[in-house]
Structure formats: C-alpha cells, structure tokens
Amino acid sequence: MVRRCSTQSWVGSRFSMGASVLLAVLALSVGVWSLGCSRSPDVRHFVLGTQFVSEAGQGAPDLAVLIGPIRLPAYLERPHFASRAGGGKIELDEFNRWLGGFEANLTTALAADLRRQLGSVRVVGYPSAAPFPIDYSVRIHVDEWIVDESRTLLVRLRWAIVGQGEGEAPLLSAYDSEIEVRGRSPEAIVEAHDRALAEFARSIADRLIALSDVR
Hints:
Radius of gyration: 29 Å
CATH class of the largest domain: Alpha Beta
Number of helices: 3
Distance between the termini: 116 Å
Shape: elongated
Helix content: 25-40%
Number of domains: 2
Largest sheet: 5 strands, mixed
Strand content: 25-35%
CATH topology of the largest domain: Rossmann fold
Number of strands: 8
Strand order of the largest sheet: 5-2-6-7-8
Order of helices and strands: HEEEEHEEEEH
CATH architecture of the largest domain: 3-Layer(aba) Sandwich
C-alpha cells in the first residue's frame, strides 16, 4: 500500500475545499454589496426658475438693480429639500437637493425673473462686479420658505429697496404667500417654488417701476 498517494489526495481535497469556501464567501460579499448599492436611490438635483416663467416687460429698461444679499433660516443653508412636519419638526430630503444651494438658486432665478419683468439687462445677483453703477439694491431676509404637512409652500420674508443716492431712506416691505403644491413629486415642489418666486419678483418690479417713474 502506498500511503503517499492517499496523503496527497487528502491534502489536495482540503485545499480545493478551502478554495471553494473562499470563493463562495467572496461571491456572497459581492452579491450583498451589489444588493446594497441597487437599493440606494440616486441623488437628484434641481434649479429654480425653469418651470414657471413670468412674462417679459418693458417697465424700467434703464434701471440697474442688485439682488441681495439674502439671509436665510438655518434649514435653507443646506442643499436638501426641506419640509415641515407636525410639532415643528424640519425634515431634510437626502435624495432631492438644490444644485449649488438654495441661496444661489434664489439669487440667480430672482435676478433673471426681474430682468424679464423690468425689461432691463442690468439686473445682477449679489455679489457682483458689474461694470455699471447700481441704482438700487434689493435686500431680502427670508423668515420662512418651506412646504408644510398640508402640502402648502409657505413663504414669509421681509425685503428692502435701498437707493444708492445720499440720504435716500430704504423702502421696507413684507411678502407673505401660501402656494399649493400640485402633487407629491419633487418636480411639483420646484414648480410651487417657481410660482412663489415669480409672484415675489412681480412685487419687486412694481415697486421699482414706480420709483423709476418719479426719478
């Protein structure tokens, strides 16, 4: 009897079994990793000022206006969509976000909308290195801009038009609005934001046009 051959076979089978177990563990690990990744939804990014566009006007084509600075509540300083649940709880949406942040979106979209409504190309967002003198700056303090549990977008803000002339007193105003969110999709939320933005821009444009008429 040659036991050497049986010993080699036993060693070989032990090696093969160990390799099989290792491959099985690796395959299971890859499968679990793939399963975990497949369950993670992609983060979606949105911008303001695309779903609801106001009509163009020619009310004050010569005005130069600076939008900003804008001050926000803490929950809008993050890029996530924010909503308010019962008991004053703020919920941040991990998978739907404002591209570049809410402040940058609001500044850019508001300036673009105001350019259309005034008929002036000289409307810029803060900060700006515009190659022309500014006639008025619009400073905004957002107290609330959030979707509540009833699917209503609540907008509460204070704003001021500040003239650049010596001794000009700022014109203080408030804007309050409740906008219905027409659906439960992220796109419906963005559309409600755009309607509020266009409505607010109309308030600013009306005040600026009145000021330009008396200059």
